[in-house]
Amino acid sequence: MTSSHPPLLLKNAWLVDPATGHEERGGVLIEGGLIKALGPAVAAPEGAEVIDCGGQVLAPGLIDMRAFIGEPGAAHRETLKSAGEAAAAGGVTTIVSMPDTNPVIDDPAMVDFVQRRARDTSIVNIRPAAALTKGLLGQEMAEIGLLREAGAIMFTDGARSITNAQVMRRALTYARDFDALIVHHVEDPDLVGQGVMNEGEFAARLGLPGIPREAETVMLERDMRLVRLTGGRYHAAMISCADSADIIRTAKAAGLPVTCGVSINNLALNENDIGDYRTFFKLSPPLRDEDDRQAMIAALADGTIDVIVSDHNPQDVETKRLPFAEAEDGAVGLETLLSAALRLLHADLISLPQLLRALSTRPAEILGLPAGRLECGAPADLIVFDPDAPYVLDKRQLRSLSKNTPFEEARLEGQVTLTLVAGRIVFDRRST
C-alpha cells in the first residue's frame, strides 16, 4: 500500500496461521504492505519500527462476507466510513457490502461508486457484492459479466430470496461461464409468511407466529438440484438448522461446487435469548433452538460450514423500538464478531486455527482473495488480539452509527489490540 513507510516488526507474538493450522511463537516483518518474513528468528532491519505484542495472538485479519451498509440511501444507519471503523475495532480487515442500498447495486456505475467511496473514506477493505437480479426483484437477471468486470466480488440479492427457479437456473448458468460466485439467502418467503421467530414451543408461548425450518431447507434443497443441473458456483449465505447442514454435507459429498456460511448469532445465541420480546434478537434467519445451535457448531467443526459472518445489519430506533412482530430484522455485528466467536473456543468446542479459518482463510479462498494466511508475500492485513481479555459490552462504545447489538451488556472475552490493513495500523487499542 505504501512502500514509503518504514518496515514494521511485530515481535513476541503467538503466530496462528489458519491456512495451515500452524502455531508458534515469533514475529512478522512487514514491508511495502506485504509480509516480508515471519517466524521465531525474524529480526528487524535497520530503521524498522518494532512493536512488542506481549505474547498475544497474531493472525490474518477477518474477512466478513455479509455486511449491510446504509450508504448510499440510508447513511443515517451506517456509512462506509463508520462501518470501516467498527470493522477495524473488531479485527475485520475486509468487508463484503451487500447490494441492498438505495439505489440498488445492480449497475456497474454503482459498483464503481461504492469502490471509490470506500477507498476515500474507509480504513478497511470494502468489496461490493452486486445484485443478482435487477432491483433485487427476483425477476430479471442482472448483467453479471459487466458487474464482475466493474469489480463486483460476488452476486446476491442480499436479504431477499429468489423464488423463481428458472431465474436461479439462468443465473447459475451465466455465473458458471463467468466463474462468478452466486450467494443466496435461503428462505422461502411464502413459507415464512407472517412468521417472526423460530416455529416451536417458545414462539407459541410468546404468542408469536413462527418460521418453520422448512422455509430454509426447501429453498436449499431446490438450489442444490439447480447447482447439480448447471455446475455454477454456489454459496448458501447462512444456514441455521441441523437439516440444512445435512443437505450441504450431502451436496459436498457428491462433489457439487457448494459452500455455506453461518451467522455468528446462530452460533452464539438461541431462541430463548429473545426473552421478553427483545427486538434486537429479531433476525433472519431466526434464532433457532439449542439443538440447532449445537448442530451449527458441530457442522462448523467438521468443515460442513465454511465461513462465519457477522450479518451486520444496522437498524435505528424507528425500526427496532416497535412491537416484536413489527420490528425490522437485523443486528450490528462487525465489532463483536471475533469476541462472540471466541465463546466457542473458551467452551472447548473448536480450536483457534479452526475458528480463524472460518473467519479468514475460507472466505478469502471462496472469494479469490490473496489474504487470510500468514506467509511471505501475502497482504499484511493482520490482527493482534488477546483471546482472554474480558469485558462487558457497552453499546454506547460501539463505533457503528446504529446500536442494535444483541450482545448489549454481555460478558465477552477477546479484544483486538491492533488491526493492520496493508501493513498500516488502522486500529490501536493501546492509544484508545
UniProtKB/TrEMBL annotation:
The active site is at residue 311. One of its GO terms (biological process) is 'de novo' UMP biosynthetic process. Its EC number is 3.5.2.3. This is Dihydroorotase. One of its GO terms (cellular component) is cytoplasm. Zn(2+) 1 binds at residue 311. Pathway: Pyrimidine metabolism; UMP biosynthesis via de novo pathway; (S)-dihydroorotate from bicarbonate: step 3/3. The gene is pyrC. The lineage of its organism: Bacteria, Pseudomonadati, Pseudomonadota, Alphaproteobacteria, Hyphomicrobiales. It comes from Microvirga brassicacearum. The keyword Metal-binding applies. Pfam families: Amidohydro_3, DHOase. Belongs to the metallo-dependent hydrolases superfamily. DHOase family. Class I DHOase subfamily. Transmembrane segments: none annotated. Signal peptide: none annotated. Catalyzes the reversible cyclization of carbamoyl aspartate to dihydroorotate. Its cofactor is Zn(2+). It comes from the Bacteria. PANTHER family: ALLANTOINASE.
